[in-house]
Specification:
Oligomer: single chain
Structural class: alpha/beta
Strand content: 5-15%
Distance between the termini: 68 Å
Shape: globular
Length: 721
């Protein structure tokens, strides 16, 4: 029996009472966290040390903790604009400060990337887990409460959508229901928020009986949105090379972050402006350097048939691919039907020969049964108006005739009067969870019913493995490309994506291992790791391609394809020497010699081996010019899907980023220069106005004004200054 509440505090009090003050609550990754209910629990546990609260989750979304005054002036108005009245989880600020009460614990299996590297509490309470093992680990942590936000139906009361988080709900709920049957106390809580998009699908749509408790305060908070990031030349190059490896009529999975954004932008560039796209590939000498792997495993033409997506995360990138007509390949949740479509024996347009094909494939019987009619109507092969009773087909007019297709007249009437026009119930995407920009949420709310039907939210067990329906999922995931990112690559093919050699966790494994395994199980599939070849550390440039590194996310036996801004390395089924050579070819040339020497010293390369000349010119300034040239022609835009920032905010963000990278001596010179330089600052008025520094109110404001002007003079910006 479902209990209904209209108040978070009352709900929290009741759950605490039911569970004898011992709450171990599992909440979703990302957007679906029930913040109102969770914060009520937190406040009560904070006030009463006899309450024990453990929160198990992943990827907590919250406003950043801003310490710098200039950063606050820039970022806080942007956050207010994007997040509005979105509520942060109370545990997050306490966790950032490492001041959680002793009776409250937070355990995460995926961290906001880079946020907690120096946070001892979070590092000690991180649990390393594949996404598909998160339910198992939650069970072992003795979770007794499952809670998440849900979207209410606009047409049916007590009917909800799991919306942004179908990923782990059903598996965890099934476990809790077993515990309940054994007499143990559990709670399954839904927090209603109509700002969530109402997503469809058999996994997403549930009624109130799925929950023990439903909270609907009628006061719905804004959703957490992430601003779009600027793409640099390095990002675009990786995206363009990776886009060459995606086949038309295939399946696509992409991860989280800027490199996924760059890939989707590259795919749209390839599809919409193919001539310009090919020109860029020519300048990158793709055909000379990487054509063997591209010709066998990729394509560079437009997407005639389109792509289907099976992914953990549904993000802005997929929405853009959908709107641009790339994400348009439909798959169907029926093994026999999908097999016929893959073989080209049927198309999505329904014709009279469909009936014979379905009978010959033993999908339907010659003497049609009720189950056959259900199948035929579900997929639009029969019109929805066709009925069935007493072994007769019934038309909308009320006429009926035998459902035995051995009878010539019956078969003729079926092909003439019963057939639909096009297949229906096809899906262009299956996804486990979603979050993104304000635009993404708006777009999902505004999709037409027939568009929304093409996107189905489902479990991580379905998107990240083949276990739920191996034959069907293999048929759906033809020519699959699983694209993830890493922070470093080992020269022997090991992947470093989630942590550092000192054991500190940066983010989490997520689904990377799952996708590597699935790519090896699917015929024609490839697993692609994107990695920037270098990173800036203070005032130094360091290589992300390393000889050895303690701690890998993926061992080298799972290596497949690697892509950096310098190209593609196909490492599947290759010897160690071949792998090293391939990865050296896409390494920044400033670091090639040192790595080459280490490989030779270890006996992994012949002493007389030299990197081919064509790969010895891997310098950023050479390749960045190619992207800059494309940008001058209107391609490869820094914000391909638009910016959430104003023009002034974009410039200010760049200026403050450059300021944060200044060494102390350089910063000192900058500060002194700002006070002894008396050039007019009228061109900076709009920037100073945005930062509330145009008319300083005190000496601190005056100092910040002078410093900001000095930094802006050194920053690239629209127009001349």
């Amino acid at each position: 029996m479902t209990n209904y509440f209209d108040n978070y505090d009352n709900t929290a009090q009741e759950i605490i009472r039911q569970l004898d003050k011992n709450i171990i609550i599992g909440i979703p990754v990302g957007l679906g966290k029930p913040i109102g209910f969770l914060n009520a629990l937190y406040r009560m546990a904070e006030a009463d040390s006899s309450i024990h609260l453990t929160i198990v989750t992943g990827l907590t979304l919250a406003r950043p903790f801003l310490r710098n005054e200039l950063e606050k002036r820039l970022v806080e108005p942007i956050l207010d604009r994007l997040l509005k009245d979105c509520e942060d989880p109370l545990y997050e600020r306490a966790r950032e400060l490492q001041k959680l009460p002793a009776n409250i614990n937070v355990i995460e299996f995926f961290l906001t990337p880079g946020k907690f590297v120096h946070n001892a509490y979070v590092q000690q309470n991180y649990i390393s887990s594949n996404y598909t093992d998160a339910v198992r680990d939650g069970i072992n942590l003795s979770i007794n409460v499952l809670a998440q936000q849900v979207a209410p139906s606009s047409t049916h009361s007590n009917f909800y959508s799991l919306s942004c988080n179908t990923d782990l709900f059903h598996d965890m709920r099934a476990h809790l229901k077993k515990l309940e049957d054994q007499g143990k106390k559990i709670a399954i809580v839904a927090e209603v928020n109509e700002n969530l998009p109402f997503m469809l699908g058999k996994s997403a749509e549930v009624d109130s009986s799925f929950f023990s408790t439903v909270i609907d305060t009628k006061n719905y908070r804004s959703l957490f949105a992430i601003p779009r990031e600027k793409l640099l030349a390095q990002d675009y190059l990786i995206g363009l090379y990776t886009s060459c490896l995606i086949k038309d009529d295939g399946c696509l999975q992409i991860g989280i972050g800027k490199l996924s954004n760059a890939l989707s932008a590259g795919l749209i560039f390839r599809h919409k402006e193919n001539k310009a796209y090919q020109d860029v590939l020519t300048k990158l000498k793709v055909q000379d350097k990487f054509w063997p792997v591209i010709s066998e495993w990729g394509e560079t033409g437009v997407f005639n048939k389109g792509l289907y997506a099976s992914t953990e995360m549904f993000s802005d990138e997929y929405m853009q691919l959908y709107f641009e007509g790339i994400l348009k390949k439909k798959v169907y949740d029926h093994t026999g039907l999908q097999k016929l479509l893959n073989a080209g024996m049927l198309s999505e347009v329904i014709t009279p020969d469909w009936i014979d094909a379905l009978i010959e494939s033993k999908i339907i019987k010659v003497k049609l049964r009720n189950s056959d009619i259900h199948f035929l109507k579900e997929f639009g092969i029969f019109k929805s108006t066709v009925g069935f009773k007493d072994n007769n087909l019934i038309l909308a007019s009320g006429e009926s005739f035998s459902a035995d297709l051995n009878i010539p007249d019956s078969k003729q009437r079926v092909t003439r009067e019963c057939l639909g026009e096009k297949l229906k119930s096809g899906k262009v995407m299956h996804a486990g969870f979603s979050f993104g920009s304000v635009d993404l949420y708006t777009q999902l709310h505004n999709l037409r019913a027939e568009q929304l039907q093409e996107i189905e939210m489902c479990s991580i067990a379905q998107t990240n493995t083949l276990s739920s329906s191996p034959t069907l999922l293999k048929l759906q995931r033809q020519k699959a490309r699983f694209v993830n990112s890493s922070i470093m690559l080992g020269l022997l093919g090991n992947v470093i994506s989630d942590g550092l050699s000192n054991g500190k966790e940066i983010s989490g494994v997520g689904g990377q291992h799952d996708f590597a395994i699935m790519a090896s199980e699917l015929e024609g599939a490839r697993f692609i790791i994107n990695c920037r070849s270098t990173r800036e550390m203070g005032h130094n440039t360091e290589s992300n391609i390393v000889w050895d590194y303690e701690g890998s996310t993926l061992p080298r036996y799972l290596r497949d394809i690697f892509v950096t801004e310098y190209g593609i390395a196909d490492c599947r089924s290759k010897t160690d020497a071949e792998i090293i050579k391939s990865i050296l070819n896409i390494t920044d040339s400033r670091f090639q010699d040192a790595l080459l020497k280490k490989a030779k010293k270890s006996g992994k390369l012949a002493q007389d081996y030299q990197i081919p000349d064509v790969y010895q010119n891997n310098y950023p300034e050479i390749f960045e010019k190619i992207i800059e040239d494309a940008q001058s022609k209107g391609y490869c835009k820094a914000y391909p899907y638009g910016s959430d920032l104003t023009q002034e905010e974009e410039v200010l963000a760049e200026a403050l980023l450059s300021l944060s990278k200044c060494s102390l001596p350089k910063l000192g010179v900058l500060i002194l220069g700002s006070f002894f330089r008396f050039q007019a600052s009228t061109n900076f008025d709009s920037y100073l106005q945005r930062m509330k520094l145009k008319h300083p109110r005190n000496i601190k404001d005056y100092f910040y004004k002078k410093l900001l002007i000095s930094v802006l003079r050194r920053s690239p910006m629209p127009g001349s200054i």
